[in-house]
Write a structure and sequence with these properties.
There is one protein chain. The chain is an alpha+beta fold. Helix content is 44%, strand content 20%. Helix 2 (40-50) packs across helix 3 (55-68). The relative contact order is 0.24.
């Protein structure tokens, strides 16, 4: 045999690295809460502007809020949901409306 003894003793293969399973991010519902003072048109405008809802979708959500005391604006990852809640509360404050908005785990 020639000088290939070193090669025969060496194991050959492909190094594999196991990837950790990525977990899907938690989802959160953004909720509007009813009050007796915030105008319905203002709520519809917020839903169309902040949540990119159509006139029909925004009206349906606004009516849910009005009739049931609460309405779901959308479901998002935490950071997006938190941002949208802040945008709603800031707009309500600028308009001198007592509108409340919150989020909950979906």
């Amino acid at each position: 045999m020639s000088g290939n003894d070193d090669e025969q003793d060496t194991e050959r293969g492909v190094a594999t690295k196991t990837r950790p399973k990525t977990k899907k991010p938690s989802q959160y519902r953004v909720l509007l809460l009813n009050d007796d003072y915030t105008p319905m048109e203002f709520v519809v405008g917020l839903l169309m502007g902040i949540f990119k809802k159509t006139q029909e979708e925004a009206t349906k959500i606004m009516l849910d809020v009005h009739q049931n005391g609460i309405g779901v604006c959308g479901i998002y990852t935490f950071e997006i949901a938190e941002t949208k809640v802040t945008q709603v509360l800031d707009a309500a404050k600028r308009g001198d409306h007592p509108l409340k908005c919150t989020l909950e785990k979906a």
